[in-house]
From TrEMBL:
Signal peptide: none annotated. Keywords: Aminotransferase, Pyridoxal phosphate, Transferase. InterPro entries: Aminotrans_3, Aminotrans_3_PPA_site, Class-III_PLP-dep_AT, PyrdxlP-dep_Trfase, PyrdxlP-dep_Trfase_major, PyrdxlP-dep_Trfase_small. The keyword Endoplasmic reticulum does not apply. GO terms for molecular function: transaminase activity. Its cofactor is pyridoxal 5'-phosphate. Belongs to the class-III pyridoxal-phosphate-dependent aminotransferase family. This is Aspartate aminotransferase family protein. It comes from the Bacteria. PROSITE patterns: AA_TRANSFER_CLASS_3 (PS00600). The keyword Cytoplasm does not apply.
Amino acid sequence: MALDIASLYTEREAERYTLHSRYLNEQMVRVLQALGYDVGFRQGQGAYLFDRNGDRYLDLLSGWGVFALGRNHPAIRDALKSVLDGDLPNLVQMDVSPLAGVLAEKLLQRAPYLQRVFFANSGAEAVEAAIKFARAATGRTRVVSCSHAFHGLTYGALSLTGDEIFQTGFGPLLPDCVKVPFNDLDALDQALKSKQVAAFVVEPIQGKGVNIPSDDYLEGAATLCRKYGTLFVADEVQTGLGRTGKFLAVEHWDVEPDMVLLAKALSGGHVPIGAVLAREWILDKVFNRMDRAVVHGSTFAKNDLAMAAGLATLDVIEREGLIDNAQRRGDRLLGAFIEIARRYEFVQSVRGKGLMIGIEFGPPRSLKLKAAWTMVEAVNAGLFCQLIAVPLFRDHKILAQVAGHGSHTIKLLPPLTLSEADCDWIEAAFDTVIADSQRVPGAVWSLGKTMIDQAMRMRAGRAP
């Protein structure tokens, strides 16, 4: 009798934290318990999660952008079933799959200035491949990225990431990696002018903070790259496939990179996949002889399940008009949050494109609120955002989180299937919680005291 995984999940669900504490990552369990996220999710459908009590939550994280189509989309499930039911000759290795060819064809139709695709298993693998390809194609070693960037946690990708908390304890990292401030063309010019830089790798919109470039930045960066012979690489792992209201975020600025990196949403939420879309000459430099046909690759890349998930994802995005939906819902939410920012002192700015939105909080003007802010932030930078995120989750059943370590920005990455009713839910919940934060003393600040006590105990090595 075949193993019933759904039944196994139900039978052992109550042990999830015990199992993870014992066998995986106890500190992650402690964080979730401290924030009150231990509700035991048992089901996911579309934009919604359901806990062990059957309560419904609106998911504004979407697995850090993986679930652009929502969870368990029937079209993705059907595509994967068709692969399994078809007994296809998967991963023969001494053959090539037609599904990989078709997916590559469809991706390149969306970026016709690129001609080749390399498939990987994740966004980080796509970044690693881009580093290797850039060095092989240019004969240079140096790679430039931006401060506050996030490109992944494997060694090459980590070397380009601009947040020290991820790097501490793992050095030395990849040599010849240089960081420049995001949105600073003069700094980029200085970094590239040596003509030793193989690639400039940049997120069109930075995920850590939802930092949006000025209108001339990406175009100017592409011009500088051409001037100095550097490859321009757009990391669209989070921004790509309609997230910002365009298929690729670079389309907002009419930029044509030499390489585009994709992952996350391309999986359909089921099978990990990454992709590097590149100019033909770049991959021709890498795979330049028959004996170098396998000079870079990955055992599970191009597997039929991943290719089917990617094909089905592109089909759903097109058939359901999800890029237009992302633009419309994003415009509505941005307008609502801008209005909220006018009414509440703690909201400093609102920024985003499509359904990638950041709400940044900061010290208010009034003395009583400023004192409360200072007290919380003195314990842990970014802790105030948890005073917003926790009641959103606990009281309004909305899952959202801070945009990065020590960040004052809450980032929204909802599924692109978001409805008008979902927008009503989001706007009402944020308005209520932010309004509550303006009342000192009040429920939000009582939560703040509790979280400060928890933080102190965790620093002392005691259980939360």
